[in-house]
Amino acid sequence: MSEGLRENCGVFGIFGHEDASALTALGLHALQHRGQEAVGIVSFDGLQFFAERKLGLVGDHFSNPNVIARLSGSSAIGHVRYATTGNTALRNIQPLFADLWGGGLACAHNGNLTNSRMLRAELVRAGAIFQSTSDTETILQLVARDRSPRMIERLIGALHQIEGAFALVFLTTKKLIGVRDPHGIRPLVLGSLNGAPILTSETCALDIIGAKFEREIDPGEVVVVTEDGIESLKPFPPKHPRPCIFERIYFARPDSIVDGKSIYDYRHALGRELAQEASVEADVVIPVPDSGVPAAIGYAITANLPFELGIIRNHYVGRTFIQPTQKIRELGVRLKHNINRSRVNGKRVVLIDDSIVRGTTSVKLVRMMYEAGAKEVHFCVASPPICHPDFYGIDTPLEEELLASQYSLDGMRDFIGADSLTFLSLEGVYRAMGMESRDINRPQFADHCFTGDYPTRLVDESYDRHQDQLSLLTESA
Amino acid sequence: MSEGLRENCGVFGIFGHEDASALTALGLHALQHRGQEAVGIVSFDGLQFFAERKLGLVGDHFSNPNVIARLSGSSAIGHVRYATTGNTALRNIQPLFADLWGGGLACAHNGNLTNSRMLRAELVRAGAIFQSTSDTETILQLVARDRSPRMIERLIGALHQIEGAFALVFLTTKKLIGVRDPHGIRPLVLGSLNGAPILTSETCALDIIGAKFEREIDPGEVVVVTEDGIESLKPFPPKHPRPCIFERIYFARPDSIVDGKSIYDYRHALGRELAQEASVEADVVIPVPDSGVPAAIGYAITANLPFELGIIRNHYVGRTFIQPTQKIRELGVRLKHNINRSRVNGKRVVLIDDSIVRGTTSVKLVRMMYEAGAKEVHFCVASPPICHPDFYGIDTPLEEELLASQYSLDGMRDFIGADSLTFLSLEGVYRAMGMESRDINRPQFADHCFTGDYPTRLVDESYDRHQDQLSLLTESA
Amino acid sequence: MSEGLRENCGVFGIFGHEDASALTALGLHALQHRGQEAVGIVSFDGLQFFAERKLGLVGDHFSNPNVIARLSGSSAIGHVRYATTGNTALRNIQPLFADLWGGGLACAHNGNLTNSRMLRAELVRAGAIFQSTSDTETILQLVARDRSPRMIERLIGALHQIEGAFALVFLTTKKLIGVRDPHGIRPLVLGSLNGAPILTSETCALDIIGAKFEREIDPGEVVVVTEDGIESLKPFPPKHPRPCIFERIYFARPDSIVDGKSIYDYRHALGRELAQEASVEADVVIPVPDSGVPAAIGYAITANLPFELGIIRNHYVGRTFIQPTQKIRELGVRLKHNINRSRVNGKRVVLIDDSIVRGTTSVKLVRMMYEAGAKEVHFCVASPPICHPDFYGIDTPLEEELLASQYSLDGMRDFIGADSLTFLSLEGVYRAMGMESRDINRPQFADHCFTGDYPTRLVDESYDRHQDQLSLLTESA
Amino acid sequence: MSEGLRENCGVFGIFGHEDASALTALGLHALQHRGQEAVGIVSFDGLQFFAERKLGLVGDHFSNPNVIARLSGSSAIGHVRYATTGNTALRNIQPLFADLWGGGLACAHNGNLTNSRMLRAELVRAGAIFQSTSDTETILQLVARDRSPRMIERLIGALHQIEGAFALVFLTTKKLIGVRDPHGIRPLVLGSLNGAPILTSETCALDIIGAKFEREIDPGEVVVVTEDGIESLKPFPPKHPRPCIFERIYFARPDSIVDGKSIYDYRHALGRELAQEASVEADVVIPVPDSGVPAAIGYAITANLPFELGIIRNHYVGRTFIQPTQKIRELGVRLKHNINRSRVNGKRVVLIDDSIVRGTTSVKLVRMMYEAGAKEVHFCVASPPICHPDFYGIDTPLEEELLASQYSLDGMRDFIGADSLTFLSLEGVYRAMGMESRDINRPQFADHCFTGDYPTRLVDESYDRHQDQLSLLTESA
């Protein structure tokens, strides 16, 4: 199950609305699934920028009207995050801000740069002082040093130097700017509310405030919003689009719309493809909640089996519960999942999950199924084995911790302890996405976790990661 | 949808386990759905009682090992709560504690007394000083004044004076005591973990720590746990059991077991009964998440219609998001629910909810359905109309705020704006519970919200509620 | 030096002023020297009482206008405290409040009852539940149980049962009431601001707000302030006054006026008497700051020696600095005092302190003097040896920890390490207070710490202190 | 009284002691009088730097052993501060830290640069991103950009570009470095504890930990402490020393030693000089506490008048007490000072203060004196009139707010309302400092507040201060 994967961010920006920061807070709340560690908003009131950056959930801090009142102004950008590059210190909470020659620049970034460590080393050698350990600050430092006269030129100058995945929103004293990397690995959409343009990661952040969805930002596109309207730039040499397949399989909210269809529909289709590929005799289809539900519904329909909630999830698990003693740890505390015994006892169960990363939760769920009386447990996964790490903003384990890189299919089945284990084929994924098949020469998705076929160079991977620490400073919050 | 109803509590107690307070914290975490405002634990280490009582979720405070370490001892009781009687001040957070002649007494209470205001007035007149405004303190004050030599006798003396619904756990210097009111309105079960007895509101609190379910406490039973074992007393004149029907319809967790069946099964059966009573032509069955899901699955199977998640719920809504300006309020912000448009557009939808209280959310969801392109919306409710308030620990609105007490069925349908509105019949409910029918003379459940047939006298209702304030003191936390 | 002694409280109450709670906060700030652990204010607005009770200094919490705004109403009482009876838990912070039959009652107490443990045991046996471990709550519980029809009668009924030292202010829905114990051990004065009566511990709390000093409350007097004016009752059989001598020697602020003279003047006179009794050849008179300064000035004038600040005190020592390692502790860190070397080096020094309790600071200061080059150090104390503990609200060490109960005069001198050690005689103290001599049969002061002659019975001392704990409950704040 | 002046900082650094951060905390506690707004410590453990930077007093945060434990390592530097350049935001709390090419650099600064705004503008134009609005960060940015191979060379390169007053301590991965500006305007001393070198602002920070005073750092000296010992560099062209006269008159602690004498002695001498210059018939000498005390003692001895504490100061005034209503403000609340009436009533009073800035407190004290019955009040000031602002780290009011720049001597006397007003002459100050007279060509002190003769250029004063904001960002803490 994909909870071993963690997305690193969601972004939101709005220009020209009197409630800019309140709407940004609501938009970020809708994007909370993309990052739960920290949240920040920067607004601009025509004279000053105002920042609030906090650890925790959006609602922990930004549902306080006093906080919203401090974020005055008619434009704002915001960010929710997990840590990928950089630790969880306060100084890494985005949006980042810099006082540049000619005005302030705030930046919120979803994705991960693959050459930021190398760029950072060069910048530090040239005298740059970094405030954070975030790869995103590299962009600000590059902008700061660009000698072009206009801010937008300096920004594009900086963008030409970075590699990797980046969906960015910037706020200047004059503009809201959105940028999507040349492959469009991370998502970015344009919406509007009563004429005020919005840039955000998913359409669900438009829905929450009743905003209109306009269109997806193109891979490689730079959108510049000013009081005079919206301008679209294409400063990069064109590349073929490869949006991240995991947005569809796991990350995006089921109600978000991508390429004209809901994420729920893509997952439903993955379940249907899986049912066609798998041939399992069973009595009931049970999803691993919540991410396995749409695929399980699709599977059940195709397999003509009853769909039942056989696992109940406790939604109050937010922060980690510490298990204070060895004795308690040995109890195998069921903090997050419990079995709905009456739907499992005596049954041949098809257990549907969206993916397997480390396999630790899968093992536990299968064991709980048998303890609850399941006759057979068939573990069916609505995506292929994950064999390769991501470097574009998904917090994957090290390659050697991925279950699929350690075991053969049989080995994985034995590890998990199920009667059978089935993965959806790569071709099945592409069919579910509406493609005839995967184009080997120009894959339609960033699917490197399954294939090892990365969309960009991985500069920092060859650059020795352990050569230097990003910062010598540790500071408590 | 039953979110207009709020349960007032969950309780947990364990005796004779070295990790008593950690296990209590975990048990309360599993009961978090029963109350999210405040949580408290009192432990006893053979010499001293230790208390921690806090506003917020269990995990906000009790996942800190230092807090657990302060709650030393091998016995502990705990409580999660909503406010019903009394406000949310710190002084009302349970377990309550009193230093009595002969030792300390801690108490955690699920339910509500129907004669506590009258008893309180008498006690104050006689010189009692109340610490809280909670009805539960009345029990402690009665115990304090009883002149019987033994604590258990004083406790039973107090219990004879109170009326209403009460599932209680007490901790003394020697005993863990569980009490369920004569009608068994609120639930209480007995479990054990490696020989350590546990008393708690639902079986899911046993499952989380891998404890064994022993049995339900009988209505009117007093269970006394000491180092010498478990003793069962039946001090009350017998009454016929009337457990609260809303535990099955809405409150209890789907994986909890009541009377040998899972709550999920009861709700599934409610959905099946509903499908048989309702005759709706439709394309898809959509639940109001999360509480409507089991009934919707049952409905879909019986009606032979596809079950789909047409409404996506944002589980990060914990604390209320404040909507700072009029303009934003007018947006009709979709904080909690969004429509999965692709499953609704162009469809005839059966929308399944477990119940309707005020109807405000129902109106909003129906409107969202039409906005998403639904051709027809048939609102089907897996329980009868709620016409009467509860006085036993469910925080119902005033009678005049209940939708069903304001409108006829047609009026309700018009209010909600659906094409049709169907409620499950009272007899349907009883059938789903496995009864042949409701016994008019001795109803098998506390179903007064549907029928107005209350299981006990309502002393405080005749006693003028507005005669006096419970306390003249307001203190900030 | 008297810092081994800690006063237990200061009180303030005002009736009929629109800024009642703000003025109470200011008054308590002026009384901060009487207690720095906790502070509370209760106000009454005609309908409700409002309480704020916090650990820390007055300014930490009550300089916040929001806090003052929450304490609405035109009457208020407040309290600053050290712990004497009872620990520092939140539940012991005064003013205490009780919802009684007939209305609320708030109480703030300076002093200590000598029969409260016995009364508490009787009350608990009779069914009373205590909220705190404070002796003050005994008074509220006695009032609660009194069956007299009028609140003032119930209050006087309770006062007849308590023994010890008590300067009390009460706030009811109608009245502000001040009470001083029959011996007048603890101080209480009456003042007024624009017609609004004020009751408080010292005149300095009147000065801070520009209020007029009216008179001291008589020993045994009960002052009742209502909208109709001020009434004085004398419900107790008359006793001869014995105000606490330590208020003059150490506790009260130097600018407070007692019996027509400033506390500074009394201390100045103690220094002058000391100079006449001591015959020391020396070069300079140096006070132990700040409490020894007035006596040292008096001494220097009489002895015709220069007065110099030879010890510099760091006033930022508020909370205790923890000394993290053994190595650091061995440094003998000078957190609070440093020597002004140039005024000590090569000199014969008279070091003046107001009193000696344990002697630990004295040892340290004498050693620092010699290290700074003092040729001789003559330690002169402006009061007699303290041989007996106090039970009236001064937090004295156990008798066996008092330096003067462990050693002869020579032994004390050796312990302290000074060249000579001189205490002012008891008769010298009385002369400095303006008396001809101490009246052995009816001593004019509560001087039991010097003489062992206690003004009241010590009921709780014979009642076994260790028979029972006041409370079995420990709760973190 | 000099409380209208606020010092901007105290610094402390220690190298090679296992309790480095604890000793730094204690040293800063002794320097608390130099800044009470914020405090920070950075330590280095051989691999990592650790920072803790907080608003509030040293004891509020750094008496917690957990905090000290987090600051591991055998070298540390620390800082207490008032705000001068820059606001009170968290980002301005020192020590500042930067990850530079070649290692980390932490910096704590007492003083103020007079060309930092100009330098900052140049650096920002060249691409530097500033984290703070502090002038101190300019130094770090200059070091970052210097291309010299060794850190110490880069540091000296930066120092050559800055102007103004600076006592600096730096911590690198190898060194503790101390720097005093060429005029030695701000103080810096060298001490040692068991062989571990210490650099700090005043000797009282050595005394608190029992460290040995070695010597004052010379004006223009750079002291480099490494494991191999202490090296002294003199990289600047020599200038004649002009230490700030206000350190002696007001800022330094009375027990600190400067130039072989205690600060107390200098102030005592100022009082003696004042008595010789002033010819006032009077009955008593009363200091404005606490800063006026040493001068008043000196005055009283010379004038052969009794010294008495006629004004009592409340030392619990830490944070500002807000006066919530107009009515209360009109009361003229005496938060900080009260008159000891018995020493004033009917007397001719000489009131001694160290200096007058705005005069607002002086007015109030004189009025309180008369209200307390003073027959005459002669206000004598132990320094000359302050006519000019400071730009070297003392937070002076604008020139037009200085009393002495608004009025003639008679006008000041009338404003203050005293019977007479006397200032010590400039020559008197120099005599009290042990000089024969002020050297007009090479004044021995930075005495520009009296004379307008500034020791350095004031570059930023001609550079338009309002040309740009230092930062466009406002962030809440």
Structural description of this entry:
The structure is a homotetramer of 477-residue chains. Chain A is α+β, with helices and mostly antiparallel strands and 477 residues long. Chain A contains 17 helices and 22 strands. Chain A has helices at 20-30, 58-61, 65-70, 116-125, 135-145, 151-159, 204-207, 245-251, 263-277, 293-303, 326-330, 360-371, 403-406, 409-416, 426-432, 448-451, 459-462; strands at 9-15, 38-44, 49-55, 75-81, 96-100, 103-113, 164-172, 176-180, 189-193, 196-200, 212-216, 222-226, 229-233, 257-258, 261-262, 284-287, 311-313, 337-339, 348-353, 376-381, 420-423, 473-475. In chain A, a hairpin with a 2-residue loop joins β12 (222-226) and β13. The longest helix of chain A has 15 residues, at 263-277. The two termini of chain A are 32 Å apart. At the A-B interface, α1, α2, α3, β15 and α10 of A face α1, α2, α3, β15 and α9 of B.
How does the major sheet of chain A shape up?
7 strands, antiparallel
Structural class of chain A: alpha+beta
Uncertain runs of chain A: none
DSSP helix fraction of chain A: 25-40%
Distance between the termini of chain A: 32 Å
Q: What's the number of helices of chain A?
A: 17
Spatial order of the strands forming the largest sheet of chain A = 3-2-4-1-10-9-11
State the shape of chain A: globular
Q: What percent of residues of chain A are in strands?
A: 15-25%
Q: How would you classify the quaternary structure?
A: homotetramer
Major interchain interface with per-chain residue totals = A-B, 69 and 70 residues
Rg over CA atoms of chain A: 23 Å
Number of strand elements of chain A: 22
Q: What would the average pLDDT of chain A be, to the nearest integer?
A: 92
